[in-house]
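From the shared-data thread, chain only:
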Amino acid sequence: MRFLEELKNLDWFLLGVVFLIQVIGAVAVYSATYTGHPSPLFYKHLISIGLFWLVVFLISIERFENILEVSLYIYLANVFLLILVLLYGVEVKGAKRWINLGFINLQPSELMKFSLILLSAYLLPLIKGVKDRRLLLLMLIYAIPAVITLKQPDLGTAGAYFVPLVFMLIVRGIPLRYFAFAGILFIALSPLLWKYFLKPYQKQRILAVLDPYSYYYESGYQLIQSKIAIGSGMLFGKGILNGTQTHLLFLPEKHTDFIFAVIGEELGFLGTATLTILFFLLLLRILNYYKKFQRLSEEVFAAGVFSIILFHFGVNTLMTMGYFPVVGIPLPFVSMGGSAMLSYGLMIGLLQSIYKKYKNPYLMEKEPVYE
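Structure, as tokens:
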């Protein structure tokens, strides 16, 4: 009975939007991995979706404050897993990003996104301003996993760690002039970063956005084939299993990073527009959470989840349309990847845990520690 009461207090509008996004993703993964019969990869994706919902419901039962209190331990465990990746990780295409657990390849860098947002929601309410030494501690907390992730190497994910931090610092009340100064400093240092920091293949990916055909047999190939797939879908698409770019093996990473191109080719503009509207509704709903939540720790967490979903959706769709360099940024709830699905399940589940308190006044409790 208690479990049914817990389910009653969830935000079924938001959960319904997420489910519809996952349905479109499942259809796309089914087609992208189809080889005359449904692929084992498709069934693996369905298991990931099932795990997502199990995590959402289980986490939503737990109080947000209880999870917040162990955020440092979750973070440290995740750092330990990242180190294990460097030592014993599974190498795929020259990158070590996964740990083989037998029944699943776990990608700790995806789980780290959740860990950082959660720990920031704990620490930021305690930070009084830009001169607070705890702010330097927070920067170090972000720098450690970023450096380890760069060693994998995975520049896209390492950079993605810091996007929620910007949003959460703004919510905390850090003046915008500091972000403007950081932006100007980054632009000023960009020539040095280009010359000494970026590797040749990373430079190629950036240049390929400007002129993909000059790098046709290298970084430009992925962008060109993705743009062809999306453009050829036109208004209504070619139909499920009928995408030539998808099924004639022109489109790379079609079930993961370039899944949006599969949707564009087979479901057309209507399919991609529907998916975009669903993401807009999801983000709008989370933004409404931010306005409804009353405690700073809750507002910071909502801002972090909002920003990571917005960033991943924006970068992934722009990348597949040829307007952003190719990076390992999956499309939330859509791309195949159990670790990413698990990470988002934890985020959505904790949002539901907070949401229930404001839907049901009897669940409201004071928590002065986090004010």
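Confidence is low (pLDDT under 50) at residues 366-371.
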